[in-house]
Amino acid sequence: MTSANFDNFTIVLQKPKFPGNIGSVARCIKNMGMGKLIVSEAGPFDPDEMKIMSTHFAADIIDNIQYFDRLGDALAPFQYIVGTTSRLGSARGPALSPKETAESLVGLSQNNEIALLFGSEDKGLSNSDLRYCHAVTTIPVSEKMKSINLSHAVMIVCYEIFAAGGEKKKAFMSKLASSMEIEGMFGQVKEALTEVGFLNPQNPDYWLMHIRRLLSRTGLFSRDVKIIRGICRQVLWAVRNKTS
After folding, report:
1. Fewer C-beta within 10 Å: the chain N or C terminus?
2. Distance of CA 7 to the CA centre of its chain
């Protein structure tokens, strides 16, 4: 039996616009037992402005915010990444509710660093941002008002994890491959499939997105990534030697 390891959760804000919202996010995650916050492709913001909304209770989170210039670099250390979106569609993948997502994260959090990724206040996450994600979650809302404040969205998702983490769970999962390992693997997959003519060279990333979804459904361990990369190397060697 196990519960969520809240130390292994990090909130990642992609292109946030307002320091007050970041401060409110810090207060929310402190309420829910989490303590790590990353800001990507924005800032740095004035700590004093953020602390107005975070209050002194979450000031330590503000003081320890990590800033990154590129989302890929921000997410590189994480083994599992959950993106949040209100916009759905075939290009954005199937989305679970926050409750369903939380239940799947309890066991994973024991041995894996998990990133909860939120987009900007006005545009949310782009398709390009979501390609890093292993899972997507969406918050059900009324058709009369679909927009949710950034900190409210963070609170809802973190609350569901907090609630699920207090329950007894049998689920347990070993350490997954990091985002850096995954992206390196997909780079090799793209190269190999382009070489053999499987991917359309005019738009290879579109078709690769479907392969990403297929391989991300259950999560990949480091040994799985090594096997797939080994297959790609062998395919490239075979094709290039036959050609020569």
Report:
1. C
2. 16
